[in-house]
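Troubleshooting entry. Yesterday's outputs looked truncated, so today I'm pasting the complete records for two proteins to confirm everything comes through intact. If either block looks cut off, that's the bug. Protein one:
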Amino acid sequence: MERRFEYGGYAVLARAVPAGQGYLGLAVIADAFGEEASVPTHSQEVGVAPTAEAALALAEAAAMRAIDAGEVE
C-alpha cells in the first residue's frame, strides 16, 4: 500500500510494506521542483505497525516531520 502527496515543496511517497507479523512504514522524499521524483533526497524506515493503514500513517507523519525540521536536502 502506498500514498503519494506533495508537502512543503517536496514529493512524498509513503509506503507500508509487509514485514513479519506487521507492516513496515517507509517514507521517501524527493524535491518536487526540478528534480525527478524518482530521485529521493531523503528516505527512512519509520517503524512497524500491526496494519498497513497504521504503517502508512507513521510514514506520512515521519515525512512531514522531517520536512518541517529541515532534515531534507
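Protein two, checking that the full record survives here as well:
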Amino acid sequence: MERHIGLWRKEGSNDAEVAELIIDGNQIEFYSRVYGEGPRCAFIGGDNDKTYKVFTNGSSKYGKNRTLENVASYKTQYVLQQNYKYKPGISIEGITTCSFFIPELIDWNDLETVEWGVTESQELIAAETKLPNIILKKENPCIEIYFEVKHSLFDPNIDDRTTFVIENRPRIRIAYKEPTEVSQVHNDIRGIMQFFGLMIGHVTDAIDIRLDISEEELKSCLYINGDFSYNMRTLGTMDKPRTKLSKINNNINSYFECWYDFYNDHKFELIRTMYFMGNRRKDIYAEDILVQYVKILEGYHLRITEEEQVASTIEKDIKNMIFTDDGKRLFTPIFEKAEWSFNTKHAKAVATWIAGGFLGKVGLAERLKLLDDEYFNIIANNAIDIIKLEHRDNASEIEDNEQEIKSKFYRKIVATRNYYSHYKLNKDNVLNFIQMCKTINVLKALILMILYSHMGMKLDDARKIVIEDSELRFETKCLIRKGERPDKI
C-alpha cells in the first residue's frame, strides 16, 4: 500500500491544502481539506517523492485507511503519475500503448522464466529465459503477453556486492492502432481481467499500469480505482488454476478473440456485468446471489431466442392492425364493453398485453430446463441430492420418481427466486438455506459453461474446466465420465 501526504492544489488554482492519497492495488482513497468541489475535478500534488494528478468525481464515504482528520473524501476515478508537466483538463487522451501485471499469471503460465547456470570455472550465474510473446489478439487493438526482465543493479535497497536479483515476469500489453483515451483502456483491462478470471479461476488486481502517450518520450503510470477481482470471496486454501497455458496454448488466441467480441457485444453486456459484479470481493447474501444467477440465466435465454425482439414487433403489428378498418370493426365492441374509448392509448395497452402473453408462453422453469439440456443437464443431475437435503433426517420420505424430482427442482428454483425477488408472502416450495447454497454452485457452473462457450470453446472442454473448479467440485462431480480423473483431464 502506498500513502502520499503532502500539499495538493485543485487544477487551475494556486491555493494548496494538505491532502492524503492512498493506493492499495485497485483501491484508491483521496482526502483533501479543500471542501465542496463539483462532481468532476482534478487535484495535483504529492509528497517529496513524486507528483500525482488525481481525477475525482464527487464525494465518497470515508475509507478504512485514512489518517488525516477534518478532510473531505473524494471519489477517485484515476490517478496519473508523470515525470513531465500534466496536460490541463479532466481527461487522459493520446494513449498508444498500455501494459500491466496480473499476479496470478505467473502460476497460470507455469513457465521457468529464469534459470541457473554455471561457468567453466564453476561459478554460478543467473539468466532470464528467452520466451516468445503470447498473442491474445492480433490487431485493433493488438493484445499480447510478453516477458519483462528486471534486475537489482540500480536498486539502492540491495547491496550488489553480495546480492543480485533477476526477475522475468509476464505482463499484458495493449497496443492501439490509433491513440485512444483512458475509458477505452479501462474497458479493455476489465475485459482482459474477466477473461483470465475465467481461465485461472480467480484474479486480484491489475497493477503497475504503464502508458505510452503520443508525443511524450517518458512513460506514465496509471492507477485505476475499481474492483477487477474475481472469485476472491470464495477462494479456497487448496485452490489451483482451472486451466494452464500448456493445456490451451494452441487455442488461447481464438479463445480470447471470441471473448473480446462477446465482451464488447452490447446484447450480452448486462448479464455478463452482473455475473462478475456478483463475484467480486464484496460479501453478498446467498439469497441475492441465487436471485441474480436466475435472472442472468433468464435474461440470457431471452437474448439467444430473441423473444423480446419478436414481442416488440408483435406489439407494433397488433397496434397497427387495430387501427385498420377490420381492426376497428373487431375491437370497437370490445372497447365499448370495457367502457373504453377507441384511441391510441387503449390500443397500445391491448397490444402490450398480447405481446406479454407471447413472452409468457415459456415459463422460467422451462427456460432453465432448456438451457440445462444444452449443458449436460447439470441442474437435473444435482436435483436428487439437493431435494434430499429437505429430508435429511429421513430420505425415504421422497416418494417421487426421478423425473418428477427433477421437474420439482426446476420449480423450486423458480419459487425461491420469486420469493426473494418479489418478497412473496407464501414460502411454499422455497429451498432451505443449505439447498440454496448448493443450488447457487450448480447455477454458477451452468453460467460458467455458457461463458466458456462464448469463447468458442467446445462444450466438452468447458465441462472439463468446471470439473477442475475446487469451489464447485461437489456439484460438478456428476459431469465426470466413467474412467475420468479430474486431475488428469
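Both blocks look complete. Sanity check on protein two: The mean pLDDT is 87.
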